[in-house]
Protein: Golgi SNAP receptor complex member 2
Organism: Elysia crispata
Amino acid sequence: MESLYHQTNLSLQEIHRNLGMVERAVSATDAQKLENEVQTQIDHVISNCERLDILVMKEPPTRRANAKMRVNQLKYDCQHLQSSLRQLQHKRYVKEQEDYEREALMSRTFTTNDAAAAQASVMIDPALQHHSRLTDSNRHMDDLLAHGGSILTNLRDQRVTLKGAHRRLLDLTNTLGLSNTVMRLIENRTSQDKTIMVLLMLACCVFMYLVWRYFT
C-alpha cells in the first residue's frame, strides 16, 4: 500500500506541474494536447485511489484510520486538480470563441444595409457583453460552490475518521494505560481541527462572496 500511495502522490505533483504548462501554452493545439495528457493522468490517479480504498480495509485496525485519512487527502487533491483542469478548459474555449467571432467580424465585407446593422450591433454589444459576464460569473460561482461542497464533504469525512480514531484510542487507554498528558494532547488536537474547519468554511464563504462581487 505504501508504494502505491507514494506513486499516486508523485503523480499528483506531476499533474500540478502539467497544469501550469497548460496555462502557459501558446497555441490551442498544444493546450488541448496537454489537457488530454493531464486528464489521462487524473483518471490513473482515480484508479489508484480506488485500489487504495481496497487496500485500506486490509490494514490492521490500529493503522486503518490513519491510512483512510491519507487516501481521503489524495482524493481531495485529485478533485481539486480536476476542477482546475475544467476551469482552464472553459477559459480556453471562451478565448477561442471570442477570437473566432472577432476574426469573422473583421473579415466581413459590409454593404450599406450591413453598415446600419453593424451600427445597431455595436449598440447592442455592451449589453451582450454584460450578459456574457453575468453568465461567466454564474458559471464560476457554480464551480466554486461545487469545489466548496467537496471541501466540506472531505472535512466531514475527516471529522468522522478522527472521532473513530479518538474512540479507539480511548479503548486502548484502558488496556495500555496511556498517560493523561497524551489524552489531553489528542483532545486539544480534535478541538483545533474543529476550529480549523470553521475557519476554512468562513474563508470559503468570504472568497465566494468576493468573486461574486468581482464578476457582478
In short: The chain has a mean pLDDT of 77. Residues 17 and 202 are 29 Å apart (CA to CA). The radius of gyration is 25 Å.
